[in-house]
Design brief:
Elements: H1 11-15, E1 23-28, E2 31-38, E3 41-46, H2 50-53, H3 66-79, H4 98-107, E4 116-117, H5 118-124, H6 131-139, E5 152-153, H7 167-178
Parallel strand pairs: 4-5
Antiparallel strand pairs: 1-2, 2-3
Helix pairs in contact: 5-6
């Protein structure tokens, strides 16, 4: 990363920096994921990609703090289809603006196996006309799965806007793993 004036040295890019020693990869039913943490909490979650496969693996569990281990176990369980609420996972939200924090907090209330629309989240945070802003905030979500942006869909349940590796196919697969109605089941009519 560059100097303090380099935009990659702060915000989303710094949260996803893989040069930090506190980032480890682990296997899930979706593929190899990774987490990065600080003393303040989980700083990022990475979904499967060629980059996560190259990260150091969770081998020495003693090097991983108990709350991080619990977060990893929770992510593995959720991606295995367990209806687990990850609200217990503490997040390091330093550098995240108040609007995005509100969006992430509201998104964390969407239970496993269900969905909400971008408009639902916008109304929940008091911005009823802010569905597009909610979508933009979720597009830069550094905590996928823990902040379950995959559970937020377009009006009428349409799958839209998933910027993680694999795009909408990954979003659909995550909803299938959770058993969300309308995703993964055979449709009589399309």
């Amino acid at each position: 990363m560059g100097s303090a004036t380099d935009p990659r040295s702060r915000g989303f890019y710094s949260m996803m920096d893989t040069r930090n020693e506190s980032i480890f990869a682990f296997d899930t039913p979706l593929g190899t994921c990774a987490v990065r943490w600080t003393d303040a909490g989980l700083a990022s979650v990475r979904l499967p990609s060629h980059r996560t496969a190259a990260l150091p693996r969770v081998a020495d569990t003693a090097a991983i703090p108990d709350p991080v281990r619990a977060a990893i176990d929770g992510i593995v369980a959720v991606l295995g289809g367990a209806p687990l609420d990850l609200a217990f996972v503490r997040l390091d939200e330093r550098g995240i603006d108040p609007f995005r924090r509100a969006v992430y907090a509201a998104t964390r209330t969407v239970p496993p196996g269900s969905t909400a629309t971008y408009g639902d989240i916008a109304r929940a945070i008091g911005r009823p006309d802010g569905a597009r802003d909610v979508g933009a905030a979720l597009a830069s979500n550094p905590f996928p799965i823990v902040v379950p942006c995959h559970r937020v869909v377009g009006a009428g349940g349409k799958l839209t806007g998933f910027s993680a590796p694999g795009g909408l196919a990954t979003k659909r697969r995550m909803l299938e793993l959770e058993g969300a109605p309308g995703y993964g089941q055979q449709l009589l009519f399309e």
